Amino acid sequence: MKFSIFKYLFFSVIALLMMQCAVIKNRKRQGTVMTETKNIPVIQKFIDPTKEGFNLFNELTGERQWVDSIYNSLSFEEKLGQLFMVAAYSNKDTVHFNALDKLIKNYKIGGLIFFQGGPMRQAKLTNRFQANSKIPLFVGNDAEWGLNMRLDSTYAYPWNMTLGAVQDMKLIEQLGERMAKETKRMGLQFNFAPVIDINTNPNNPIIGNRSFGENREEVTKRAVALMKGIQSQGVFATGKHFPGHGDTETDSHHTLPVVNFTKERIDSVELYPYKKMFNLGLSSVMVAHLNVPSLEERQNYPSSTSYNIVTNILKKELDFKGLIFTDALNMKGASSFKKPGDIDLEAFLAGNDIMLFAEDVPAAITKFTQAYNDKIITDDRLEHSVKKILSYKYKAGLHQYKPIDLVGLSNDLNDPEGNKLQYKLFENAITVLKNEHSLLPIKDLTKAKIAYVKLGDDSSTVFLNTLKKYAEVQEMEEKNLDSLLINLKEFNTVIIGYHKSDKAWRKHDFSEKDLLWLEKIAAQNDVILDVFVKPYTLLKIKSFDNIEGLIVSYQNGDIPQTISAELIFGAIESKGKLPVSIKEYFKVGEGLSTEKIDRLGFSVPEGVGMSSNKLKQIDDIVKKAIDDKITPGAQILVARKGKIIYHKSFGYHTYEQDSKVKNTDVYDIASLSKIIGTLPNVMIDYDKGKINLETRLGEMLPKARGTNKDSIFFKDLLSHYARLKPWEPFYKKTIDSLTKKPSEKLYRQTETEGFTTQVSESLFLIDSYKDSIISKILKSPLLPKKEYKYSDFTFILLKEYLETNHNTTLDKLANENFFSKMGMNYTMYNPLKKIEIDQIPPTERDTYFRQDIIQGYVHDMAAAMQGGVAGHAGVFSNASDIAKMMQLYLNKGSYGGIQFFSSKTMDDFNTCYFCTEGNRRGIGFDKPQLKGESPTCGCASITSFGHTGFTGTMTWADPEKELIYIFLSNRTFPDSNAPNKLAKENTREKIQQIVYDSILD
Q: Which of 197, 247, 267, 327 does the annotation list as catalytic?
């Protein structure tokens, strides 16, 4: 039996040898005959145990037949042409484009690597060049952090160093998928990424931020995740820069860097990620131009031209079967070694498949031809690389090439989902390294006196503006250090932001001046240092002892600036871990967790399951309203799931277009005052048991005892079901019947004793009239029928209740209990006492009472006659601040880590007790209409609540959708008695409908 098996094996081997000998190799340069299929590399199929997806190593149906057919149809020169990828720039002129056309037509080059330009220009050129090519071209570019690395008008995603701080590998895989979709949309088959250099040298001038970090395992995890994402979309990933550019002190673009490590060290560290990634299906490798004496004995010999490095180590020892690219051959690390043509030949002989950025293809082909004739290049060697290239072209679908569709290209590349991912990545990357005394997040806003000092020479606008959305933050702009230190003594917290350019390869080092200022400020103040740069920047700081809070935000874009401010105030928690070590101070993997408290944060619509494109329709509606003179301007805000995702201002303060509306402007919010200023204070008393639904008005307000209002139940009162009159034009009784102007008995033009109640800039009412208003309300008759009737009297009386029982004024009570604690710094009564008039849109040219432009004074006449502080009106605010109160309601009484009242109280107040009687109202809140006219679009849930205001305002929250919608305007300007076109056109409701229509989940 054994002998029979031996005989079978022996004759099988003899037969194979005879077949091999029968193969005739034609050495003619034209029409080279393909050798036996053994020369096609047999690529082993590797299975990723964690995810099945696009797998390079599967041979596709029809692939070998196509490869053989194409290969056999090529002339010798055409085969050589496949080995070259030439640099292309879409921002250059026709001379450059025509030169590329010539290379494609005459030399049949195999591909292009695009550099600087724009997406539409590049797409058009790609279609042009592909149309001119006999065999479809490979097209690739360096998109390490997205297409924006080379192309304008595209996404720039976080640098690898930033991703090194992210602990969720699924997010990095999603980034790879996202980048690949954009790459594919541009007709590219290769993204020359990821960089898998392990950056163990902080002084590395070219890798730095391009590396995931200094730890081989952490770098590998992220490189694998990014690779998986890229290749899952059918785009080839390229690991670079082999054998490892992470510990160099010079840049291979300008010289030949030296890597002075033993082979054992390189194998253990630099090659570690390659070995792991090869087993998981890495498509290709880019070989660097490095001087590595331990791997290449010849002195100053670039690794890209080293047979030992490329063939013996990469292809044989590591058994890599994928495509091998040189790094760009125009780089001085290569071009200084040999001239164009010669360097290409050296690289090919070393074992590279594709010569990237070949500078002189005709010269190279001449050199290759001579080497072939001299039998330096064999048929086998040429066939090996060309067939591998063709095989990859087949896998990329180039055998069925289709031109890039230019329609919708820009929109596809800038899909809002990209920003959603950006937010997630930075939320997971930003790293807290110090947090003494739990300074982060800043919780108690009533005690916080915060100053902001900017260091560095780049923009900090978004960071500072976002900080100001949470608390009062004073920017310090002193140019003199001594003066600054004196002024900073007034503050108990100083936030120092260090801002440098976010562009790649810019220096981020602290200047000597910056270091001095940091040292001196930290010596006398509690400091939070937030650096929007790579972590290596911290190396220049001599001591961190006096720095209480230390944050690394990695990059200086708008998104990291926004998210870092969120973290400081607790809207998000910190999750990032340091990807590199900072001397002995901070080690790889360090990063503190901070507390997340329930403050509003920021995101994009897609981040909370909404559509940016749908929300854009809001802009059209508001612009039409302004054009139709429905309102001069407006602020609109949408928040969902605790994130503000739409916040815009439109138009001007007046139709004269003198001042544009800004997000920080404050509007007279009219009846929204009821649920922003008065109601939350009433809810505290309810929560404490001071009042309940059955409490009578006489028990709440002694003045009401013995009147026809005495027995009104609290529940009826706040449901507008107490038979109260809707309102009373109290001001008319104070107008002189002859002059039609304010009575001289009751008013003065300047503040004098007994006349301190200011109703407008030059009008002061006699102080006793406040009590007269309450008296008139209490003496007013009740309506004959018990039915829903909206009345301002309810909240005018509630103000009297609150001030009587708390022995303070409503404005002080609201500020102490809510506004100051919640960071509602743009919310106030009588705003001119705190802010400038140009921040306040006017509400009317009053020709019937105050005879003045009403700006900075409450529009409501009764509220004005109470000194601007009333229960039913008087609050000035902006959309951002109102959103905080509405979020408190959605949180059922909690905001910023403070439980203001219980969830039961919120539920009690957000209940419609008289729905069966046709009354939609909750306790103080308006609710969706049961029938007839509605305050909403009809799309809000029955659990939703809110309020509208006479000046053209609306705020609405929906617990079921976790949604907040706010509309602020001064539609009453210039004439509040003109027809209410805002209501007639249902402008607010139409916008609310769009908000609901934009919800995707």
A: 327
